């Protein structure tokens, strides 16, 4: 017998041998043996909903590769625009391809003036930037109805360029609106990440002095967030995209999933958690509360990594470079203390709970001057190429609409009583 399993239905004695291919077992085979019986896995911990060639994770070994390239090699050598090209198109660009790609993205960076006047200005002053971003991404669907031609590869490419290009512009505009400063248009003379910093913190008339250390650190953070296989928000994108909805509402659904504190919202939750532990001597009490189930240690744990998240390891180094410019974030020592106590405690060790990408990223963002409501927005900018790559892959695979089955636990059929009999 080769690489295969055999399933036997003990009610009938019937068996079926199913090959193991690429680490997977085709559902079509066993469902023919077990009509009406479903493998129940509500959070997809042990089931695959996709075949993908974009990113490879090995949770036990703490490995992360984009299109086969280890994250440790990409981080610090390839810029975010190179990695976005790699994630979306499958290969690292040549210098000419990179130059053309950066120009194409820069050309598409501006957003329509109506976005500012009629959409962004419609929000409350204290609206959370993620709520504005999610609505803004969905609103793009109304500006580019041609994006609905999702089965056309050229059309898909046009929308992918627009979304990668406009995400920073929309994000920066959401921030400028919240602090009441005039919008700053994209500056074609700056690179992608420098331009974002200019739109965030620059004056209206431009001329923003990009700090190279901060720009490089943010660019690296975008690289680390570019993709991560079938995480919650990417799965949301694949589910919504499978209905052939346009890429704008598809990405809005992904950003909505990212907003949750169990996912991309964790970087904001970590800083709020650290701010809540106002002094060193409260760390032990806090950890006691975690072990009692009163609260989670935000920024710790991962469905796949049962080892140190390789991105968290890289982020610790980035943090020191940023803090050398901005001054150390006072919450860093608290974070390091929490990590030290947790990694020595059997509660965390026995559950394979280690720092994930969100444990340090918020501290870095905060030290760079980003307000806490922008942290998950920054995650979304970095993840946009990954969401789009998975959407494009799904369309190219000609996959069917996602429609899971269920295990029904409700009433058997019963008759409707008249209201007087209820
Ligand atoms: C991201 O999927 C991805 O790839 C995501 C991501 C990406 O790049 O897209 O990597 C980005 O979302 C990282 C995760 C950010 N979230 C957080 O930091 C929030 C805190 N972490 C937890 O909520 C949790 O660890 C999750 C959501 C990340 C994972 O949840 P799982 O896999 O469903 O794990 P679980 O809840 O079943 O936990 C198993 C055990 C439980 O204890 P017991 O019931 O066995 O006693 O571990 C405990 C949990 O209570 N546990 C924690 C904990 N995480 C898990 N206990 C305290 N603090 C935590 N953070």
Overall pLDDT confidence: 95
With strands numbered from the N-terminus, the spatial order across the biggest sheet is 1-2-3
CATH topology of the largest domain: Citrate Synthase, domain 1
Quickly name the level 1 CATH class of the largest domain: Mainly Alpha
Number of domains: 2
Shape summary? globular
Bound molecules: s-citryldethia Coenzyme A
Major sheet details: 3 strands, antiparallel
Total count of strands: 6
For CATH, the homologous superfamily of the largest domain is named as Citrate Synthase, domain 1
Using the 3D structure, state the CATH architecture of the largest domain.
Answer: Orthogonal Bundle
Structural class: mainly alpha
Cα-atom radius of gyration: 24 Å
How helix-rich are the residues, as a percent range?
40-55%
Number of helices: 18
Q: What kind of oligomer do you see? A: single chain
> N-to-C SSE series?
EEEHEEEHHHHHHHHHHHHHHHHH
How far apart are the first and last residues' alpha carbons, in Å? 60 Å
Descriptive keywords:
globular, mainly alpha, binds s-citryldethia Coenzyme A, 3-stranded antiparallel beta sheet, 422 residues, Citrate Synthase, domain 1
Mind sketching the topology for me?
Blueprint: E1 4-9, E2 14-21, E3 24-25, H1 27-33, E4 55-58, E5 63-66, E6 69-70, H2 71-74, H3 80-89, H4 95-107, H5 113-119, H6 129-143, H7 153-179, H8 192-201, H9 212-225, H10 232-241, H11 247-258, H12 266-276, H13 283-291, H14 310-326, H15 331-343, H16 346-350, H17 357-367, H18 375-396
Antiparallel strand pairs: 1-2, 2-3, 4-5, 5-6
The protein binds s-citryldethia Coenzyme A.
Residues 228, 231-232, 262-264, 266, 290, 296-304, 351, 353, 356-358 line the site of s-citryldethia Coenzyme A.
């Amino acid at each position: 017998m080769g690489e295969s399993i055999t399933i036997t239905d003990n009610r009938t004695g019937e068996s079926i041998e199913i090959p193991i291919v690429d680490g997977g077992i085709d559902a079509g085979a066993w469902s023919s043996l077990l009509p009406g019986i479903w493998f129940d896995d509500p959070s997809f911990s042990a089931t695959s909903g996709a075949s993908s060639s974009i990113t490879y994770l090995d949770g036990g070994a703490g490995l992360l590769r984009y299109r086969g390239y280890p994250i440790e090699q990409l981080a610090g050598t390839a810029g975010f625009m190179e990695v976005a090209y790699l994630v979306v198109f499958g290969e690292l660009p040549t210098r000419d391809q990179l130059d053309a790609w950066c120009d194409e993205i820069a050309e598409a960076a501006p957003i329509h003036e109506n976005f500012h006047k009629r959409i962004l200005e419609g929000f409350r002053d204290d609206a959370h930037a993620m709520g504005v971003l999610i609505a803004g991404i969905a609103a793009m669907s109304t500006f580019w109805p041609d994006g609905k031609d999702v089965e056309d590869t050229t059309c898909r490419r046009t929308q992918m360029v627009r979304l990668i290009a406009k995400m920073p512009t929309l994000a920066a505009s959401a921030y400028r609106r919240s602090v009441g400063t005039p919008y700053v248009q994209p500056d074609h003379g700056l690179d992608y990440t420098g331009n974002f910093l200019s739109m965030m913190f620059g004056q209206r008339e431009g001329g923003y002095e990009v700090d190279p250390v901060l720009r490089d650190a943010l660019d690296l953070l975008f690289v680390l967030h570019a993709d991560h296989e079938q995480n919650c928000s990417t799965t949301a994108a694949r589910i919504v995209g499978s209905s052939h909805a346009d890429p704008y509402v598809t990405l809005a659904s992904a950003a909505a999933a990212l907003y949750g504190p169990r996912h991309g919202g964790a970087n904001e939750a970590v800083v709020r958690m650290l701010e809540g532990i106002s002094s060193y001597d409260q760390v032990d009490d806090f950890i006691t509360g975690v072990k009692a189930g009163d609260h989670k240690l935000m920024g710790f744990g991962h469905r796949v990594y049962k080892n140190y998240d390789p991105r968290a390891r890289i982020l610790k180094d980035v943090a020191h470079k940023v803090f050398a410019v901005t001054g150390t974030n006072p919450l860093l020592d608290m974070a390091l203390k929490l990590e030290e106590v947790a990694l020595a405690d059997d509660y965390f060790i026995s559950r394979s709970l280690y720092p994930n990408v969100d444990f340090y990223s918020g501290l870095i963002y905060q030290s760079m001057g980003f307000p806490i409501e922008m942290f998950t927005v920054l995650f979304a900018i970095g993840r946009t190429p990954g969401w789009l790559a998975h959407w494009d892959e799904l369309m190219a695979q000609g996959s069917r609409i996602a429609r899971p089955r269920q295990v029904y636990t409700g009433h058997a059929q019963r008759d409707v009583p008249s209201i007087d009999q209820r």
